[in-house]
Design brief:
Blueprint (H helix, E strand, L loop, with lengths): L4 E7 L7 H9 L4 E5 L14 E5 L2 E6 L3 E8 L2 E9 L5 H15 L3 E10 L9 E5 L2 H4 L16 H11 L4 E9 L7 H15 L6 H19 L2 H15 L6 H13 L8
Parallel strand pairs: 1-6, 1-7, 7-9
Antiparallel strand pairs: 2-5, 3-4, 5-6, 8-9
Amino acid sequence: MTAPVLVSAFDGWVNAGDAGTAAAEFLIQDAVEVAVFEPDDLFDYRDTRPVLTFAEGVVRSMAWPSVTMFHRSQGGRDLLVVTGTEPSLGWQSFVSTVADLAARFGVTELVAMGGIPWAAPHTRPVTLITTGSTAERIGLESDHPEGELIVPGSISGALELSLIERGIPTVGFWARVPNYLGTRFGAASLALLERIDLHLGLGLDLTELAAAADAQRVHLDAIADGRPDVRSMIEQLEALVDGGSTTSGEQLASEIERFLRNRGDGDFD
């Protein structure tokens, strides 16, 4: 591999709207597995339960939570993508193992991605929050949290710190996902992939994803039109966004806490 880049995305916390993992699913198409991590070392199955499948009452299969690292070449770049379910056990040993692999493969950069629940309407373009190992990595023009930010930790954050300690620079792109959605939000994954494509110069073909995101927008609009309470809320969010707002650490922490308290199912929570 030549100067590979490590991309990370994990299901669970910091993955609102499945933004990061859906983007990772796109990146690992036609990719090759290079490492599969032992699930018994990473998961408490009472907390992260495997999925059991029956067919006409007959036990057929058990799908276990997993984390895998893949390799793919794209646009003249080597990508290593580590993705899967956020571990519930062994965080420090896991991120140390991933950092060891990164050093062995000669990784030059970590790009983390995910979704943050936000008071944002689905009717406006998805915006991203950028984090990084240094202010220079974030960039003066990038939208980033103002002031000090204290939030619940994630495996993505632990991995970033582990690589920083190895001298590997990092950058994170986090899509603002409408906090009233209880479903996968294609526009967020698309925004992440567009930003990563720009950052790494991969030349990704995102035409189908863009069409799917547009179709979902039409679907969500139709649902909202049939629910006056939802439509009113969306109009208030549109006015807030159109009026301009900043990303304060206090606001971000508040949105995250509300997201953790009020998870739900369906298109709209």
